[in-house]
Amino acid sequence: MLLIECKDVKKYFGDRILLDIENLKVYAADRIGIVGVNGAGKTTLMHILTKRLRPDEGWVKGYERHAYISQLEKPERESLDREMASKFGISDSWQERMSGGEKTRFKLAAAFSENMDLIFADEPTSNLDMEGIELLERMLEEYKGALILISHDRSFLDKLCTQIWEIENGKVKVYKGNYSDYCILKSEERTRKAFEYEAYVKEKKRLEEAIGQTKEKAKGIKKAPKRMGNSEARLHKMGDQKSKANLDRAVKRMASRIVHLEVKEKPIKQEGIKLDMEDIHKLHSKIIIEGEHIHKAFGEKLLFKNGAFSIYNGAKVGLIGPNGCGKSTLIKMIINQDPSIKLSKGAKIGYFSQDMNILKENLTILENVLEDSAYPQSFARTLLARLLIKGEDVHKKIHLLSGGERVKVSFAKILLQDIHLLILDEPTNYMDVNALEVIEDALKDYDRTLLFVSHDRKFVRALADHIMTIENHDIKMFKGSYAAYIESRNKIVERGKKEIEKEILILQNRLSEVLGKLSIPAKKDDPVALDKEYHEILGRLNRLKSSL
Question: What mean pLDDT do residues 52-70 have?
Answer without folding.
Answer: 88
